Amino acid sequence: MGSQYSYTTEWDKRPKSIMQFDRKISKQSVREVFDQLLNDQIPSLEDFQWVITQAAQYFKTLPNHVQLQTKRNDRFIMVGDMHGCFETVIRLFVGDQATQIEPLGFPGDIVDGRRNIYIFNGDLVDRGGSGYQIVFMLCLLCLTSPEYTKINRGNHESDMFGASLAPGMGHKYMFEIKEKFPGVDLSQIRTSVSELFCSLPICHTIDQQVLVVHGGVPMSSEVQTINPLNGQIQFTSKAQPYSLKTLDNLYPSRFQTPLLEDTPKTKNQLWHSFLWSYDRQPYAGEFMAHNGIKSIICSHTATPYHFITTLLPLEGGAEPYAIQSVTRGEDTFQKVQEFFMERPNLARAKLSMVEVFSSPTNQGQMFASVLNETAGTIDPDPLHWEYKYLGSHTDFRFIQPEQ
Ligand SMILES: [Mn+2]
Questions:
Q1: For residue 280, how far is its CA from the centre of ligand 1 (angstroms)?
Q2: Where would a tag sit more exposed on the chain, N or C end, judged by fewer CB atoms within 10 A?
Q3: How far does residue 377's CA lie from ligand 1's centre (Å)?
């Protein structure tokens, strides 16, 4: 099989044994599971399937758009694509001594007087060699600490990628499971994995001001929704900014969308926008203004640094919005700060998109964005957030795939 895009690490390849797993799960037992994962133990397929099935049942009770309200001293930690690298989870929760990465702690932990709430922004699997551990651990955390552990669906949480049985670029998750359990009947586990993927919500908002979504946002266009009164498909009559209020009537429902890019123009255009689009276009500003969103945190783009796109109204507040400042690189924050220092009148009008990527499979650096509650509400300005460095891809020893 040997995909050319294999990012299996030496850690992934250390011999693994099957853990003893007690299905009476609790916050405490999940910590013990984490220690076992850390020490090269993995769950049996039966236990894995049990956990992801329980988690899917929980996720199905959530709306497409989960609205969060900050509480005093909350700390939101946004984790971008992890792409099958369990080492990212390790670095987040317990740090890494060898590379001096300080831990952020587990979901629900109180660190420096603030409580951790994690939002994992999709693309948990593929490319790396330990997506099995990531999915298992995060599902357990969602089951035992749901108020502190959130997951958005990414485009790899689909039958096209993560649950695909076809070998090829990016299609790695099923082969990772096959490598761990050579005798597995993949068709059976695949069904449960696909069901879990489809159960994940599309996006979260914090205090109705910060939107966290894997890909991007839809452009203004005719959209399909389902009428909740009669179940019929309806179209909005003319081009207008997409309203987040209608997201829970999205058609087809997320449980019917294992194939996200299946003829997106006619069937899944909105799904495509939220989970696939790389567009950082002016219409995002229209969307944000219409929905009262100040900042969007997205992932999906394999950015080697944090990438902030700042959208501003054109001179005089005219529509549509224009991208006035795009910065990329190590000095992103300095550049954005300088931009606004030179233009003090623009400070109140700015809308931002921040991209966060947390996997070493990207030939770049890994980050998480950290937002602290201030004065009873979230601060939506990305210049006030912390950017937690999780390491560089050079920290990891990748194993070359056999040809
Ligand atoms: Mn993606």
A1: 14
A2: C
A3: 29
- pLDDT of amino acid 151: 98
What's residue 264's pLDDT? Answer: 56
Q: Is residue 402 part of a domain?
A: no
Share of the chain above pLDDT 90, in %: 48
Domain count, the chain: 1
Q: At 167, list the tokens.
A: 């070998």
* 236 CA from centroid of ligand 1 (Å): 28
pLDDT tens for each residue of 34-82:
999 999 999 999 999 999 999 999 999 999 999 999 999 999 999 999 9
Is 401 part of any domain? no
Residue 5 domain flag: no
Rounded to an integer, what distance in angstroms lies between the CA atom of residue 370 and that of residue 389? 11
Residue 364: strand pairing partners: none
Cα of 355 vs centre of ligand 1, distance in Å, is 11
Question: How far is the C-alpha of 271 from the C-alpha of 267, rounded, in Å?
Answer: 9
- Residue 191: give the domain boundaries: 10-395
Q: Which residue, 26, 52, 257, 25, is CA-closest to 134?
A: 52
- Which pLDDT band, with edges at 50, 70 and 90, does 392 fall under? confident
How many angstroms is it from 203 CA to the middle of ligand 1?
A: 14
pTM (2 d.p.) = 0.89
Residue type for position 289: A
In a domain, 2, yes or no: no
Q: What is the CATH number of the domain that holds 209?
A: 3.60.21.10
In angstroms, what is the span from residue 83 Cα to ligand 1's centroid?
A: 9
Residue 73 Cα to ligand 1 midpoint, Å, equals: 31
C-alpha of residue 5 to centroid of ligand 1, in Å: 15
Distance (Å) from CA 162 to ligand 1 centroid: 11
